[in-house]
Amino acid sequence: MKPDLSHEIELTPAFHDLDPMEVVWHGHYVKYLELARCALLARFDYDYPQMRASGYAWPVVDLRLKYVQPAVYAQRLRVRAEITEWENRLRIDYLIRDAVTGRKVNQAHTIQVAVSLATRELQFVSPPVLWERLGVRPE
Predict the structure, then answer these.
(1) Where are the extended beta strands (E) located within the chain?
(2) 48 SS3 class
């Protein structure tokens, strides 16, 4: 059975997240993804402090967003983050929905790679600590 590698948070855009058109400025969606990613990784006790302690940095090397409809001030949003790849890189898929209607607002994904803090070298296979924390095994 495949483990559940997802987590969901709820948030509401603040007034300072709006642009002059009174919708959430496009750049703030990245912040919402980061909040969901941190909550997801914390679920597995592998958030940024634990990554650093394990000897690895995990920089984002690719970020893609698709805007479906604008979010507005005080709209309740659900942000779902799910780890979909972990063998050679960490891919997290995101879905942002209106918390009341369920309508899709945005979908995105990020790709992070492991870099050894000691050598600054890219790891072409995800380190065993990630596999252990996620509770997955090599196939």
Answers:
(1) 6-11, 56-57, 60-67, 77-85, 90-98, 104-112, 115-116
(2) helix
Question: Tokens at residue 64, please?
Answer: 């893609």
Quick one: average pLDDT of 33-41? 98
List, for residues 69-86, the tens digit of each pLDDT value: 999 999 999 999 999 999
Instruction: State how far the Cα of 19 lies from the Cα of 73, in Å rounded to an integer.
Output: 10
Of 85, 95, 100, which Cα lies nearest the Cα of 134?
A: 85
**What token pair was written down for 8?**
């969901």
Q: How far is CA 13 from the centre of its chain?
A: 17
* CB contact set of 104 (below 8 Å; sequence gap of 6+): 68, 69, 95, 96, 97
Percent of the chain with pLDDT over 90: 96
Judge contact between 86 and 44, C-beta under 8 A: no
Q: Which of 43, 49, 47 is nearest to 3 (CA)?
A: 43
